[in-house]
Design goal:
Layout lengths: L9 E7 L6 H9 L6 E7 L8 H6 L6 E5 L5 H11 L5 E4 L5 E2 L3 H12 L3 E9 L5 E5 L6 E2 L24 E4 H7 L15 H7 L2 E13 L11 H12 L7 H6 L1 H4 L7 H14 L1
Parallel strand pairs: 1-2, 1-4, 2-3, 6-10
Antiparallel strand pairs: 4-9, 5-10, 6-7, 6-9, 8-10
Helix pairs in contact: 7-10
Length: 281
Amino acid sequence: MENNTMSPQISVIVPIFKTKPYIEKCLDSLINQTFRDIEIICVDDCCPDYSSQYVNKIKKNDARIKLIRHPWNKGSGGARNTGILNSSARLLAFVDSDDFIEYEMLEKRYAKSLEKNFDIVACGWAQVDTQDRILNRRPLKHPQLLAGHFFDKVSQHYNIFNITNVACWNKLWKKSLFLQNKIFFPENVFYEDLATTPRLVFKASSIVTLEEDYYRYRNNPNSYTNTITAKHILEPIREVLESDESDVIPCWVLDSRWSARCGHLNTAWRRSAAAFVTRAI
């Protein structure tokens, strides 16, 4: 699918930080997408390992690739925000630089988004190891979901876990969801997706899911996401509490699938976190 207009159809945002062993695989999966009408915005978040050198090398041969360098480290959330604000397309995709995607992922999600002008198109994902071997598959099996169906009949609160996972990277987003609602990722906060995706879902008018696991999420032993502490979980909760979408919080925190995110933390702490949120709202 090609577009003759000046602006691409999809802006793919890639935060880069300490992923030198994986950046080539990641960008190869983007450059060779069957859907060609994209721009690839790589954001160098002050990489100490020269991960962005490969980007400099290949962007000379592909005008779709842009490289933006941060003057100081802003974390993955800040890098994504930089990508959003410098994007040209009306649709956004996020790919972490130690992950990669199947070559048809963008084409399939773009085609689906056009069917009913969906705000969000989510797909399944598979976890892979450092050698790209699949560890487990996570397909999505929900049909089309409209805003009125997000409501959880038991809790009477919006529950993102009834729709899809909380990550931003397996979804195609309308950029207007971010800009019109002034929702961005918090900077230098662990698990920034937890502070952002539920709020965007809360504002969305329509979501659709694709069962296929097009995204490859790498189990990177050096990734900060392999470290979970009470501080890491409470930071994104505080971000949401300070937003205009704090109604998403109660069932989100109490949901058992959310608890699994901090499964190694003791039960007493999880209860304390839930109590903290309940008091705050």
